[in-house]
């Protein structure tokens, strides 16, 4: 029994070294490991199901169990050949920051309880504000991810534009918008009839004429349009909605413009991305997800709002048991700016990573992801078996394996079969999505450690699988 949960300094060090050794080995061996690995629920139940342990075990035994049954059973989203969904190409400094923050058990809710961390968060948010060219009034905070950032932003938009829930209000976005936006609206109490999902144009972007027409129609029917959600990089194809035009339009029409840049916004660090994201500096709120293309461990999301006071207007509540933390004007209590009171010190991850590597390294790392998708597109275009469905954009390319004389439904199935076989083999992880009703393959190439060889070998592997299935 150890009722104080006490460990000696030697024990703590020894255990810590074991953990560090494991992480370092994992990172170093990653390119040679299979990307995918999964066991069945029954296998894992056998390995891990047990009654609540009455007595403690040796650390060694626990770590061994983790090696055998837990960390060996994950898909490696940080693997250089993980191209599915949105990869999570984290970095070691971010992981160390997470360890430090929990080692010191920082309560990042109030200035009184953690003024140093609050200042780090303020500085880091300010850096991001500057990266996106937002004005000095802008601010924000770190949250758990893009879903929470979108929820936070939409709560603010509703508060500022409508003063709270409103039966008649309507909100607009393209059919390429991430499902977390719909979920956020659902949580906030919006009904289906209040949500307008507008068919995207041929480049998968929100078309302004259709948006305008829908808003006019809704107004003429007594509805209250209040918010447009734009994509700063759709998950499906990397398409960017026309941010500059949308910002002008929303400004004229008195609508809130939220941009979901969860995965795509960091492309601002590259020359190409900066051009594509023109207008992002004019949005009212912006979601970014440092645990995607800013290379941080989960869970690191961030929400920025053009006027940070709007966050406070939306979320600040002062109960009697928190009177002591109210603080002075300059003392930021991040719990007043979002949903969480108790919050971990997520900002430290990005702050330490920026300090350690410098923004110049991040610029190169992001540009590399964009170049890798271009390499993929070039490789695909050189082979007669592939159709490129959407070109390389912000590190995403979509395509189909298309043998001659095959009907569309069979071609759809073929894409799925290729992915299934890739998952079984474990060489690389890719995923499908559906565009205009057709199943396509998709590569998201944002890992800075991915090589051209990784890309070419992955495409070759998929081509070989496609040919084997159809005995070409
Ligand atoms: C465009 C976009 N928005 C929002 C999200 C949700 O982010 P999270 O998974 O961090 O909650 C994602 C996730 O992939 C995304 O790609």
From TrEMBL:
It comes from the Bacteria. Its cofactor is pyridoxal 5'-phosphate. Pfam families: Pyridoxal_deC (PF00282). GO terms for biological process: amino acid metabolic process; carboxylic acid metabolic process. GO terms for molecular function: aromatic-L-amino-acid decarboxylase activity; pyridoxal phosphate binding; transaminase activity. Belongs to the group II decarboxylase family. This is Aminotransferase class V-fold PLP-dependent enzyme. The lineage of its organism: Bacteria, Bacillati, Bacillota, Bacilli, Bacillales.
